[in-house]
Amino acid sequence: MELLREQIVVAVRSIRGNLLRTSLTVAIIGLGIMALISMTTATSSLEANVEQQFSSLGTHSFTIRQKVEGGFRRGMRVTQGEPLTYRDCQRFAGLALEAQTNFEVAYNVFGSATATLTRGSERTNPNIPVLGIDENYLAISGYEIAAGRNLNNLDAESGAQVALIGADVAAELFEPWEDPVGADVLIGSARYVVAGVLAPKGQAFGMSQDNQCMIPIPCVRRQFSDDGRSYTITCQLQNAEDVAAAAEVATGLFRVVRGDRPGEDNSFQVSQSNAMVDTLGEATSGITLAATVIGLITLFGAGIGLMNIMLVSVAERTREIGTRKALGASPRAIRMQFLVEVIIIGQLGGLVGIGLGLIVGNVVASFLDTPFVMPWGWMSLGVLLSFVTSIASGYFPARQAAKLDPSVALGRD
Q1: Which residues neighbour 391 within 8 Å (Cβ) at sequence distance 6 or greater?
Q2: What sign does the dihedral 165-171-175-176 (CA atoms) show?
Q3: Residue 206: helix, strand or coil by DSSP?
Q4: Is residue 117 domain-shared with residue 145, that is, in the same domain?
Q5: Domains in the chain, number
Q6: Are 185 and 115 within one domain?
Q7: In terms of pTM, does the model score above 0.90?
Q8: What is the pLDDT of residue 54?
Q9: Residues 365/41, Cβ–Cβ less than 8 Å
Q10: Contact 144, 174 (CB under 8 A)
């Protein structure tokens, strides 16, 4: 232990004596680690954001929507499938209930992306999305009520002109001391009563989730027309492991609803929220692989530079090595002395690279409106790579130093 402490002191003294060369080596190693950590931090942040956004639907859910295909087939463009209609959704919900399935069904339809809400002299910008929902939508989509109540079955069935508004919409139309619940607002020219205010959810993929309005589906059909609109059905389960089996059951039921014949492709598409997260993971894995390759190439160059520095250090310190050997230092002690030096340099480079990588990665993440992350696994890998690079590049110079003949070393000028 005392020998190791002495070797560390000597190594630090040597590093400080060659500060410029050490700084350049630390910088090269740091750049390699930074390239790796910054890219993996940014992709980890993106993955965390997507998982967070899809957790509102949950990994316990799957979605049925209009079939969309692109490209050309036999010289003709493939078109979109038939829209999912309101009647399709009602029939599917009824069949799911009769079959006593283990999932809950909710459906919704997009009304407008450019609606204006008015209250007296207060008006929002004409950019409010209006969504038609049923009474189950909030529970399945992950929204919560901050004030007031959710839509009930009577609202959803009869098309009562009640509305749920997002936190941003409430802030635009009402003063902080005013209670929006029970107040009248105009959506376009139609009057609605605010039944509830949604709890804030922040942004998703750069778009505010609080700048929106939800009304019963029959109201969307009356006010915005139902022609050509396609509905979305979301089904949620208690257990994530049952999603795949439940999606198969739902596919069979919806084929009955749509009248798809045996052997024909589905006239709709079913997607699982956890599958979407997995798909994104596959996409970001390519970026992570590229970052790893770039980092390894840079570290390879850093290793060569570190080896050259240590070989020069051995040549410059031959008299020191000879003196230590003459005083009884073993070849193993000499070898360990130089290895301690390269390990310290490598770990300094690794720490610098990890710190810079975290800063750069999270700065990129902030521009993408994704959360701050600490990729502990990749940080640990950065430390390990720095250590391996140090040992690999420092062993040969350390071995050369250990093999020096003390009489020859002491005789050199």
Answers
A1: 339, 342, 343, 346
A2: positive
A3: coil
A4: yes
A5: 2
A6: yes
A7: no
A8: 57
A9: yes
A10: no
